[in-house]
């Protein structure tokens, strides 16, 4: 039986009997969850070590040797701390025995209620849509990089090799249209594990190339404060780039948007919040280690001229085959990461449509279809049409606005404060009934307001970067 991720009609409790069929369902009547901290860690790594890692060398170059690593570590600590608060909110009112909440919005509804639920929904789904657009851009850049490296290898380093991104965005969209027919998050574990392996592979290749560049005696300029005013950038550019770099780092830790959906895949025992905290610790620690290595070694290799995508900074020359492998891994990883971020959108829309039109067979009926080599698959016509339309629309937007760094920074700035900091802290204060103006209340509020300021300056830098890109960009023209 095919049970959707969001099924508001499921009973909150299920009478326990000796019926073997009930072993396939949880205590609330939904399909039995089989996820573990390992699969949850894979989902987190897939969501976190995404395209964000590619821009970290550039971000460190803007901030320098002291501020760059310090900002990275600060974001990692904040992300892990607030993720533990969010994990405890999955069940309410008790984090172990309370009623399950299946989405981020459900969690906010149970803990805060009111208009904050709508604000959470807007922040979450705008962010998720932005991430899927960003991943479409990044995947196409990686595939183009393969084309360029092969072109330089075949025709020489002075050849004009500037293939268009757009055919590859279309190819990426076609693959996503097929994968989007995966019914829900519960069926994504295999794809997330594959994507996590790919993320480790290209990160290690990037590290290896950076080390080789440094050991090879590359004479690049690095400084304590990063890019220098008057030499590398103007004073105003330094300010804007610093703000944008902070946004890029914030984007690199953006997985709170899907944390509750990931937690909803975990088995009920051991308690989901304990397993989610363990998965978060593994995921954030692993990604922070890779981020520090990629960001710092990438900066050491390229200096203040570090490119926005550090895998494109090795000249696309030799060893061209190794750069090709790295970019293939990026593309495969982003195929899986796209699904991790779009599944909550799919589930939300389909849940609302079923509630609005419960009698519509177009929306509610599944049809069994025999597919060669795949066996019998369940096809829902509404799911097919709506998800295809969504993937097509995100690909079209990516083709119109293929700006990499500015786009990542804006997404990171827009989502970091509300979803990673504000809501987890406010829900903890409400659930724990923290007294107003107590020590805990004061330092949590200080943390929240400080992160708001960081998000605002990061957003300002990213908006300025987008405006600068738009001034010299013509839609549907090849971007070098």
Short summary:
This protein is mainly alpha-helical and 480 residues long.
Structure overview:
The chain has 480 residues and is mainly α. The chain has a single domain (27-471), classed as Amino acid/polyamine transporter I. The protein is built from 14 helices and 4 strands. The strands form 2 sheets. Strands 1-2 form a two-stranded antiparallel ribbon. A two-stranded antiparallel ribbon has the order 3-4. Helix 2 (56-88) packs parallel to helix 13. The protein starts with 36 loop residues before the first helix and ends in a 9-residue tail after the last helix. Mean pLDDT is 81; it is low at 1-18.
- In the CATH classification, which architecture applies? Up-down Bundle
Within CATH, the superfamily carries the name Amino acid/polyamine transporter I
What composes the largest sheet?
2 strands, antiparallel
Helix segment count? 14
Rg is 23 Å
Mean pLDDT: 81
Our measurement of the CA-to-CA distance between the termini, rounded to an integer number of angstroms, reads 49 Å
Query: What best-fitting shape do the alpha-carbon axes yield?
Result: globular
Give the strand line-up of the largest sheet.
1-2
How many strands? 4
Helix content: 55-70%
| SSE succession | HHEEHHHHHHHHHEEHHH
Tell me the CATH topology: Amino acid/polyamine transporter I
Q: What is the C-level CATH assignment?
A: Mainly Alpha
Structural class: mainly alpha
